[in-house]
User: Fold this.
Amino acid sequence: MRPKKFNEHKPFGHRKIAAAADAARFIRSAGFCALFPIKNLPLLSLYEAIKGGKPPREFTWDRDVENLWKWKDQLGKQRRAYYGKYFRGRGTFISLEFLPHFLAMRQSALTPDAYQEFHAAGRISNDACVIWEALAEHRPMATLELRHACKFDSKRGNVRFKRAMLELQCLLVVVHFGTEQETGAWASGRFELTSRAFPEAARAAGEISPESARAAIASKYREWHPGAEPAGIARLFGWSKSETLAACAA
Assistant:
């Protein structure tokens, strides 16, 4: 049965999102959404689906936000949705059904060992290549462990690490894959290569053209934003005018 649609007055139809399974169903229905609302970005967010509206002017850390923070770690690790910093480098969920379309649209890596190919083509920086190679060799790694393996231990190295990790997540090469308690402070994020965490999605992406992927994504977006203009869709997804018009027409 298809999940009920979200609307701003009755989040997730008439159901309350009270568990990770509810959150997974919402993400599946939405296709893709943000973790929290992103300023000036017309995109659904899981926070708004839970709360039924945008955050108050003074944000508060309450039980709903605590659950939301926990679910973002669970859903990726349990392979129930992609979670990473994608739209504007902010927390983003992509459903398993739409992950192949995003991978095809971004022409992202479909195998773990493609880092040299991407680097040679100028698609990733030297730092991003180092991180990708480390994950390809060692499998999932927590933040501090990964920084150490890549020799990004210094304060300046941490800045380079964060920039390169954002680069890889915006290409959908890396997925947030749970957490690990590395210190006495907050748990560290754990990361894996998307092609290894979601091999079925990677295989499916190989059968989808970028044009078909854009058409499917645009169609899904317009289900939730029927009044969206091509110019706004182009800005949101980073498409050219011709790509956007072709996607909307399809």
Notes: Residues 1-12 have pLDDT under 50 and may be disordered.
